[in-house]
């Protein structure tokens, strides 16, 4: 294996000092002439020089690594979110480590410990399903992590840590209102696991909107799912046989499963039963079905998460102010080194929207 070129090699080839090479390659060439900068760039290219990030981290106190822990990497929403978060990180020179907890509290704990030991500059976490029922344990883990942490999607409104998510209660109401305005009165719902705050909020918003419209919500038309295709498929018979004319599936993947069972029974979505999904994620994966859905934009969510985390990272390494120049996002001096993401947590709720007959 060929020896990796070093700063000394570049300096020798360019006929300058190591300090001069370091200034130029680290983007601080103000005191270096244009001629020397060009010599250094030429030498670095010819030697195939690649900066040693480990060595640089010792000086800058930054690893330029960020972690994202998701509960189920096979879930289309989490997969798409991971891609969008990676794009946000890469645009600022960070690399993203994506880890899968399999919705396990124990696995999530181990991942947080291992990733923290890798020296990540920040961590984004969609809590495992088991952590939603053991929030004190999750909180203890977050408090042990030295780097900034942002919670995503679940436990967002509990207020003890920086968090970003969508207003799922509003999303549930949007779905119910759309179906009510379409003349439906017997409406079913396939929920996520209501032990999770996001799933519970979608259900609450849905039921409240129906009852506030003066209609009766029939508990017999409520089937618990788990955001997977099979749970939507297996919920269909009970809701169809219960006399529902419409159904709200609390994510698009369960809606696909529900539609599959409809087709097997010789029924057509929209004509025989209105089916609404949630997420608006299918077209990203080549599944552009003609289906109304409640959209929570993964692009907007990724941007908001990274903006919140990057502000905290900047503060921990001694820089102040947000990257977008918005003073309202800057970290105040009183936060100091006292983990402001826990002492003065910020919560941002994004607003979902209804997208009719599309999965764009």
TrEMBL record:
Keywords of the record, alphabetical order, are: DNA-binding, Transcription, Transcription regulation
Q: Where would I find the HTH lacI-type domain in this sequence?
A: 5-60
- Tell me any Pfam family this protein matches: Peripla_BP_1
Q: Which CDD domains does the record cross-reference, listed alphabetically?
A: HTH_LacI, PBP1_LacI_sugar_binding-like
**SUPFAM superfamilies for this protein:** lambda repressor-like DNA-binding domains, Periplasmic binding protein-like I
Name of this chain's protein: Transcriptional regulator, LacI family
Q: Does the keyword Transcription apply?
A: yes
Upper classification of the organism: Bacteria, Bacillati, Actinomycetota, Actinomycetes, Bifidobacteriales
């Amino acid at each position: 294996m060929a020896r990796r070129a070093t700063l000394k090699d570049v300096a020798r080839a360019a006929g300058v000092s190591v300090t001069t090479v370091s200034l130029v390659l680290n983007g601080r060439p103000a005191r270096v002439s244009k001629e020397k900068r060009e010599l250094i760039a030429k030498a670095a290219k010819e030697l195939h020089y690649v900066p040693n990030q480990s060595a640089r981290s010792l000086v800058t106190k930054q690893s330029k690594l960020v972690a994202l822990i998701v509960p189920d990497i096979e879930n289309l929403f989490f997969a798409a979110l991971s891609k969008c978060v990676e794009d946000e990180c890469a645009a600022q020179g960070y690399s993203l480590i994506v880890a899968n907890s399999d919705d396990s509290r124990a696995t999530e704990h181990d991942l947080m410990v291992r990733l923290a030991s890798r020296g990540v500059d920040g961590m984004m976490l969609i809590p495992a399903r088991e952590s939603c029922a053991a929030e004190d344990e999750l909180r203890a883990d977050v408090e042990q992590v030295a780097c900034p942490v942002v919670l995503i999607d679940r436990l967002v409104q509990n207020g003890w840590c920086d968090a970003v998510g969508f207003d799922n209660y509003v999303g549930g109401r949007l779905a119910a209102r759309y179906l009510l305005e379409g003349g439906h009165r017997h409406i079913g719902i396939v929920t996520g696991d209501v032990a999770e705050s996001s799933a519970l909020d979608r259900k609450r918003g849905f039921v409240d909107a129906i009852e506030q419209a003066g209609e009766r919500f029939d508990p017999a038309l409520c089937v618990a799912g788990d955001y997977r295709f099979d749970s939507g498929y297996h919920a269909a018979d009970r809701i169809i046989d219960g006399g529902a004319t419409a159904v709200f599936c609390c994510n698009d993947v369960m809606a696909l499963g529900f539609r599959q069972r409809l087709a097997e029974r010789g029924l057509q979505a929209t004509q025989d039963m209105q089916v609404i999904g949630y997420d608006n994620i299918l077209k990203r994966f080549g599944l552009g079905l003609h289906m109304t859905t409640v959209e929570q934009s993964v692009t907007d969510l990724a941007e908001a998460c990274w903006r919140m985390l990057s502000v905290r990272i900047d503060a921990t390494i001694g820089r102040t102010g947000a990257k977008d120049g918005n003073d309202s996002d800057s970290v105040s001096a009183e936060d100091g080194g006292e983990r402001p993401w826990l002492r003065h947590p910020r919560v941002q709720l994004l607003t979902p929207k209804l997208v009719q007959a599309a999965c764009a």
